[in-house]
Specification:
By secondary structure, this protein is α/β, with parallel strands linked by helices. It has a single domain, classed as 3-Layer(aba) Sandwich (Rossmann fold), CATH 3.40.50.1820. The chain is 33% helix and 19% strand. The strands form two sheets. Strands 2-1-5-6-7-8 form a six-stranded parallel sheet, with helices on both faces. The protein has a two-stranded antiparallel ribbon with strand order 3-4. Helix 4 links the parallel strand 7 and strand 8. Helix 2 packs across helix 3. It is globular. The two termini are 27 Å apart.
Length: 222
């Protein structure tokens, strides 16, 4: 189970007086870095997200990257979709246990939990849909795999694609979406003009705006 050092807090925003004390202002955001990266990379990218009691869990991949000179990987790189799913799912099961433990310790439910993944981290995040109690996902510059297990609650998935990304082309992500449909999952594709395979400031603003609005709306509906 992650220690208290694994969670961080963002800047404060006003709390709604209509919320119960147990749930008010509490959010959990999981950030999964890309190949050759580390947890601090995606934590920095998510710096614009507000919330007095917003907790971040941004672990590093379990292995040192084999192709990059630094950082970590979630699994050995492969272009085979079947192996990608198998390897991503194997990692996702371990992360799911950590997320559920954090939710229980912090008293945060699926509606107030979001998973954000970039590149290879987006593949792992995709494998977490339906596996972990979370209603909000952001898949940035990575393959969109069909949910292995259908979610039991309505789930929204924001997909970020770079206009000039050659590693996860927009055309491939559109093709992935055609085979990833599920009645309880709403997918939204946002293409970032001029962007390649990278975490851009424009992308950071899009993700922050999406999560600030979607999570806050869930709180108001609680």
């Amino acid at each position: 189970m992650p220690s208290s050092a694994d969670t961080e807090r963002a800047a404060a925003v006003p709390r709604s007086p209509a919320l119960s004390e147990a749930a008010a202002g509490k959010y959990l955001i999981i950030g999964l870095h890309g190949y050759g990266g580390q947890g601090s990379d995606i934590r920095t990218w998510l710096r614009m997200i507000r919330g007095e009691q917003t907790h971040f869990y941004t672990p590093c991949g379990p292995h040192e990257s084999t192709l990059a000179r630094k950082g970590f990987e979630w699994f050995p790189i492969t272009s085979d979709v079947g192996r990608m799913r198998d390897r991503g799912s194997a990692v996702a099961h371990g992360i799911a246990k950590d997320i559920k433990a954090l939710q229980a310790r912090l008293g945060i439910d699926a509606r107030h939990t979001a998973v954000v993944g970039f590149s290879q981290g987006a593949i792992v995040a995709s494998c977490l849909i339906g596996l972990v109690p979370a209603c909000h996902f952001v898949l940035a510059n990575g393959r969109v795999l069909p949910a292995a297990a259908g979610p039991t609650a309505d789930t929204h998935v924001l997909i970020l694609a770079g206009e000039h990304d050659t590693f996860a082309p927009v055309s491939q992500m559109r093709a992935d979406l055609r085979s990833a449909c599920h009645p309880r999952i709403t997918y939204e594709l946002f293409e970032i003009p001029g962007a390649a395979h990278e975490m851009t400031d424009r992308g950071a603003r899009v993700v922050a705006r999406y999560l600030n609005v979607s999570l806050m709306n869930e709180q108001k509906a609680s």
